[in-house]
Amino acid sequence: MARLLQVSTSGYYKRAKRSVTTALTDNEQRKADLTVKIIDHHRDSGGTYGSPRIAADLRAADEQVSEKTVAKFMAEIGLAGISPRTFKVRTTIVDPTASFRPDLVERRFDQGPATKCYFCNACSTAVDKSE
Q: What is the number of domains present in the chain?
C-alpha cells in the first residue's frame, strides 16, 4: 500500500495510527464538558451572565476553572453577557383630550425672530439730586 501511495512505510503507518484514533483527549473532553456547563449557566441566567459570574457559579459547583478560560470558551461559542438597564427611559406623552388651565398672566413665550437681538445696560450710576 505504501508503494501504491508513493510514501514511506513508516510515514504510512504513522498516519494510519493517527487517523484510527477518534476518541477525545482529556483536554478535549474537559473543554466539551465545560462548554456544555457554560451554555447551561448562560441559558439559566436568561443570557445576562458573563464570564465572571459563570466562573463563580462553576467554582461553587466544585469545578476548577479560571475566569479567563470561561471567557475564552464563551468567545469561541459566541456567547456574551449583558448588563440589564437599571432604569427605564420614560417620556411624557401629552394627552390631547386633557383640559389645560387658562393662562391668567398672558405669558408670551415667542420672542420674535431669532435674528433679533436685545441689549440692556446693566450698569447703573447713582445721581445725586441735591445739587
A: 1
From the list 79, 7, 2, the residue with the least C-alpha distance to 44 is 79
Listed in sequence order, the residues at least 6 apart from 90 whose beta carbon sits closer than 8 Å to its beta carbon are none
Burial (CB < 10 A; 0-12, 13-18, 19+), residue 78, is: exposed
pLDDT at 89 over 80: no
Distance CA 89, CA 125 (A): 51
Which positions ≥6 away from 81 have C-beta within 8 Å? Answer: 42, 45, 47, 48, 49, 50, 51, 53, 54
Rounded to whole angstroms, how far apart are CA atoms 121 and 56?
68
What confidence tens digit (pLDDT) does each residue in 113-130 have? 777 766 666 666 666 666
Range of the domain at 35: 24-91
